[in-house]
Amino acid sequence: MHLSRRTLLFPFALLFFVGCGPDDGNTDPPNSNDVTGTIVDVHVTDEGDVEHARDATTASVAALVLGDDGKFTRIDGTIESNGAFVIPGVPQGSYLLELEKGSITTRIVTSERSLDLGGLYAGRPDVVRLKGETTLDLEVDGLLSWQDPDSLEMFSVGAGTDCLLSVAPAVGETALNAAVNMFDACFDASGAEAPAAIEASKGDKTIITQLGTYGDPAVGNVYVSVRKALAPQSLEVADGKAVTLSGSFADVPQKMATVSWDTASFASIAADVHPLAAPRAFELYMGVEPGGADRTTSSANPTLLTYQTDDPAALLTSFQYGNPFPGEWAEYYSTYVSHSFPLTVPGSMNSRPATATLSQSGPVSSLSGTKLGIVITPPRDIKVNGQATASELTGIGTTPTVSWSAPTQGKAAWYSVIVRKLDPMGGPTRSAGSIRTTETSVTLPPGLLETGSYYYLMVRASTSAYEPKAPLKFGAGPGGSAEGLTSMLSP
Question: What is the pLDDT of residues 53-95, one digit of tens each?
């Protein structure tokens, strides 16, 4: 999964007027304490980039100012139809910016007074969202002889829709006749909305890929990569209606990728994640970025290859994959080394893992000369309200201050504090929200923690380039990140 954006902006000069005297009738200059800027997203489509200005019906923006008494004051902003926004009367210095787009809330600690809050997303801004069961009847053949690890993925950049088709033929078969509920199998690539209908009449193109297995599943240590593809020419999906997709998959020419793993760098990193953490998995992922080589969409991208093992001594070094996507889409890789330890909510019979990931990413073209290992180590000495978090903490309050020290290896461009809420019934943990900052401490605002619930925190250090004036725009260069974990916390 990738991120980024580019192009914008309505000139800030339109917000400023020069007065000639007290009685000349001109508008007074804006307050110097106002925070101003624009929220104009760029959407990557099959027909090219499309700009879309957010307004008060599709976004909200506010500043949360921490006072000397430890309490936050919320100052809501206004957004015009052209995407220009103003948050009035924000005191000079750092504040917590809160931006909502759809179901996604972004929180950033900043002191900037003029901001570009546009993002780069896959999908037209005028898509129609699916509201209920919408059936895709697959009548396809030409598949690679099916094996259990295989999977089917469908992607449309124009609709911003990514689908993991949870149907499969019997092992050994090469044809498939099955129905898929797109409302359940598909999702909005940005993760902010319901999945969108794919409309060829609007220029949407679709590619379905078979990620076929390399290796023997009976032996293990296999990987899957794109082996076959089908590009239907006229897929037209309407909410609540059935549509048939038929055709034959074709071979996708295979490429080779050779990698070198720095396994020695993995050996002693677990203790930096948390004193109880242990290695869990090692993964190589390859995908394509519709935004191109110089920018990254805040959207899920099509998969080219995925490989995972729990044994660093058995890591494969040679891979094959195909790429049926447009040539201007950039191939990239990401490696993930995950560590975890169990947490159990009081009164629960089931434990859940607190999991942290160390990652490295870059263009696939750089793989042959890159050692895959640890780019940056986790933030150190994570504390809550000045207390060490190697053991469980209770009574931390709903707006605690989280602090940490910089990594011992690598230079962090920015940090994220991610709040993970534990399920008292032992179900999966979920994100309660996150905050991005360039500092090494942050106070959580109201609403992230609830009295009577249990949490743990991830503090992520990232080397990716960061532009404070355009904090939602990410480049596509090589980089890495590392997460440290706290023990269980309760307000």
Answer: 999 999 999 999 999 999 999 999 999 999 999 999 999 999 9
| Tokens encoding 402 | 């989280």
Mean pLDDT computed over 368-395: 95
pLDDT tens for 120-153 read: 999 999 999 999 899 999 999 999 999 999 999 9
Q: Between β-strands 243-248 and 135-141, what pairing exists: parallel, antiparallel or unpaired?
A: parallel
Report the DSSP pairing between strands 479-485 and 352-363.
antiparallel
Torsion sign (Cα): 440, 445, 448, 453: positive
Give every strand in the sheet of 387-388, ordered side by side. Answer: 387-388, 380-384, 401-405, 441-443
Is the whole model's pTM more than 0.85, yes or no?
A: yes
Give the sheet arrangement for strand 243-248, strand by strand.
176-181, 135-141, 243-248
Reply yes or no on whether the pLDDT at 4 is more than 50.
Answer: no
- C-alpha separations of 121 from 72, 166, 334, 464 in Å: 32, 25, 20, 19
N-terminal to C-terminal alpha carbon distance within the chain: 32
Per mean pLDDT, which range of 6-10, 90-94, 300-304 is the poorest?
6-10
Tokens encoding 471: 């904090």
Structural domains of the chain ordered from first start: 12-118 (2.60.40.10), 135-252 (no CATH), 256-490 (2.60.40.10)
